[in-house]
Design goal:
Helix content of chain A: 40-55%
Oligomer: homodimer
CATH superfamily of the largest domain in chain A: HUPs
Structural class of chain A: alpha/beta
Radius of gyration of chain A: 28 Å
CATH architecture of the largest domain in chain A: 3-Layer(aba) Sandwich
């Protein structure tokens, strides 16, 4: 923790020095997935951003309680408070119990997070797991006079809230007057809209219509919580009324996060987090990637290379590396070419890391490795600038290759330092599994053996021992390897796998 | 579903024909883990039993809703209703929020389930996720006059229940008079015991003491649900008041399952499941394996071979196979020798499966394969008799080897049948990943190449070409392989990995 970390706070719109409320403990809340469909790559990028932050804070010595929720109820179709519940709709379409939908996509989500080597959060609470807490929060907000019940639903009174707290719209940069004008102009026929005192108000508890499956008993009759409420209730429960960091995708700023702040203030006189972080979106050929845009990639399509935009598949670690090569607040454009370049770069770095153990030290270093290491930290401390940190890794890879080739020297002390630091930084902080090395071991063995066999065969042919040369070819066929003699020597390929 | 499946119902104590209430749908509830420590092998055996049943029912064409809960609150230390909450205690000892404990061990549990190739259930509900439902159930039971509140806790009135339903003890074979006598003789100083009208009564809602972290608002003040209640509430919610199958470990019969039946009847006039299945325990050298017995194996110790009772590690699939070689209602004794034998048997079967694709058919079969297949089904239909089914697989393996060696003939029709049926049965029903085949590919390649190289080296030495023989030895060293010349020929081992 002898590092000054600066993070860009969406409230205030500038980088601020990170100072936890109660060091060395850090409370971090991140909005997780709504589990009604497969997680797409845009979501993965958001979770990767906060995985990186979680890893870096842990690396710096903080004890982080990282809470990332699972939205398994209450998230309605238009992201506000009208339309059908996303999970209930999917359940209806697939003729399943909503919680079967939740389970299927939660299992899938965890699987993809695992492929990307994302650490599980410390707590993974669900909306349905906190109905009691949400009902209690609704009660408190009503007691403060900032919510009202109409016909079994409870709405947050944004106008009254604004009179008191004067900060609604601060996070998302929206003006309440414009919101009112805009909302007023919207179609008013959406269910529940006419129950609101003002169109900017939002539901914190919704009455369940007779056909609504997901429903709970409440003081206002059977219903379900508003989507925004769960995050306020769960962050308060597990991190306290005031906590350090709240993260999420940029698209959640409004209305979701704005509503969270209002609910927190209304309930507890604290807005919740001190720092709001927002991860930018993924684009595909310049357009936002999203389920509604119809251009969302599934991770599986990417790994298998089965998406029409791709010419081949890319490993999860390549994709992770690719994403980390952009700063989390920048948009990141997805294309075959960009992924291909990332794959080559990734290999360059892991190849160099694989050389580290075998490097020999000299009397002195031709390069200031200490300075280099502090620059890596400086990049990370500058609002998690992973692309700059990775650029430093490329520099290191170049140097390692030079050292390995004997063109450059490294002192014993520096060598020990980088032999420790580089793998730690790559694996623990960036979360990159060195799969080139891991998978490489088996492959390398086969490669090495094949090289030896080809040499022996060449030698047999040289001394005109064609019997041996034929035995070699036939024996290889039996283990599923086909030799290919060409102008540039003998190659081979596997015929079965 | 053209198979008559018989299952041993713990109520009634005999095998009954399985007839789902609403075919082809089947509702199955299984008591899952209390996530306050690593899952041990005894638990794994229970979950394997119901994974097998889930797979077999699905194989037969049933549409199974398989609900397995996660107990993340309410399970007190003595398994009844006194003592500290198991999760809260662990949280206190490790200075963590209880839900961090829950997350850690839930993640670990899912990981182990994955290693054993157990399918995720259709729904995996948590106790904390169903507080509202549990409170509602308590209310209903109180309305029926079968529970009473004392000082913020609510107790189930077993005596009154028994007067009305006359079946308390039927599942576990206990007599209520003896229970009363036994409980009365127990130490009465346990917290809450003196609040009960009768010592056999059990808590369905417990008042939270001031230091109790896990607490929820209820009509009876802040508290938490009794352990037994969650399963009644969740099975009713997801499977209905009457459903097909309830499973769990034998040790849960009393008091847990007995209490569930009573709660279900009291609330809804249905006992819940029609069939109760109980999986027997794992023993270690004849003694029950359990956390409290201090002889529990962790799956990791078994895979790594790091437990003092083991001489080597065994793969998850070997262990799965080992467990399936015992009937689920028999005890299964764990020993190094038994595992070793299972490993050999497992390899025998997968080796034969690996031969299947390359078998050549003849004019007629020397063996009645149709009869054989129906015997495999007969074994499974006889209360999931997996050891008998596996014995049939051994028979098949023997035959396959004979066919492969040309000593026995198989008709085209039969060959196609077993080429389809055996892998399906092994993988889909028994849930055995053919890892010998999968992992074998890479290893087989290296093995094959090494055999060729050793032959070439022997041949070089035979013609006294020691230069080549030395080059081979040195080249192998470079790829991390050490040759070992011995009396019985030349062997090799990897020096790095």
């Amino acid at each position: 923790m002898n590092q000054d970390l600066f993070l860009y706070n969406s409230i205030g719109g500038q980088k601020v020095k990170f100072e936890p409320i109660n060091p060395p403990f850090v409370g971090m809340y991140v909005c997780g997935p709504t589990v009604y469909s497969d997680v797409h790559l845009g979501n993965c990028r958001t979770f990767l951003t906060f995985d990186l932050l979680y890893r870096y804070l842990t690396h710096l010595g903080y004890k982080v309680r990282y809470v990332r929720n699972i939205t398994d109820a209450g998230h309605l179709e238009n992201d506000a408070d009208a339309g059908e519940d996303k999970i209930a709709k999917k359940a209806r379409l697939e003729e399943l119990e909503p919680m079967e939908i939740v389970q299927r996509y939660t299992v899938g989500f965890r699987h993809v997070m695992g492929l990307f080597n994302m650490l599980p959060p410390s707590i993974e609470p669900t909306a349905t797991g906190h109905i009691v807490e949400q009902i209690e929060m609704v009660k408190k907000i009503m007691e403060k006079g900032l919510a009202y019940e109409v016909n079994g639903s409870v709405y947050f009174d944004v106008i009254k809230y604004q009179e008191q707290f004067k900060n609604y719209g601060e996070l998302s940069g929206r003006k309440i007057d414009e919101l009112i004008a805009g909302a007023g102009a919207e179609k008013r026929t959406l269910e529940g809209q006419d129950e609101k005192r003002n169109p900017v108000d939002f539901a914190i508890w919704k009455k369940a219509s007779p056909y609504h499956i997901m429903r709970w008993v409440s003081p206002w009759g059977e219903g379900f919580p508003g989507w925004h409420l769960e995050c306020s209730a769960m962050s308060t429960k597990y991190l306290g009324e005031e906590f350090d960091i709240h993260g999420g995708g940029m698209d959640l700023k409004f209305p979701h996060h704005e509503a969270e702040i209002a609910q927190n203030n209304a309930c507890c006189n604290h807005g919740g987090p001190r720092i709001w972080l927002h991860s930018n979106m993924l684009t595909v050929n310049g357009k936002r990637m999203g389920k509604s845009e119809g251009n969302a990639f599934l991770p599986e399509e990417l790994f298998a290379g089965s998406h029409p935009l791709l010419t081949k598949g890319y490993s999860p670690m390549t994709v992770r590396f690719f994403m980390l090569q952009a700063h989390y607040r920048s948009t990141l454009d997805f294309s075959n070419e960009a992924l291909h370049a990332a794959e080559k770069g990734f290999k360059r770095i892991t190849d160099a890391v694989n050389l580290l153990a075998s490097l020999k030290s000299g009397v002195a270093s031709d390069f200031n490795w200490k300075q280099w290491e502090s620059e890596v930290y400086a990049a990370m401390n500058d609002d998690l600038n992973s692309p700059v940190a990775i650029a430093h890794l490329f520099e290191a890879a170049k140097r390692i290759n030079s050292i390995s080739e004997g063109k450059e020297s490294v002192s014993k002390e520096d060598l020990e330092r980088i032999q420790y630091f580089i793998p730690v930084f790559l694996q623990d902080v960036l979360g990159i599994r060195n799969e080139n090395m891991a998978a490489g071991n088996e492959e390398n063995t086969v490669d090495g053996l094949m090289q030896l066999i080809i040499n022996l065969r060449n030698e047999a042919r040289f001394r005109k021992d064609f019997q041996t040369s034929d035995i070699i070819r036939d024996s290889l066929k039996e283990v599923g390897i086909q030799l290919k003699d060409g102008k540039e020597g003998t190659g081979w390929e596997k015929t079965t796998s």
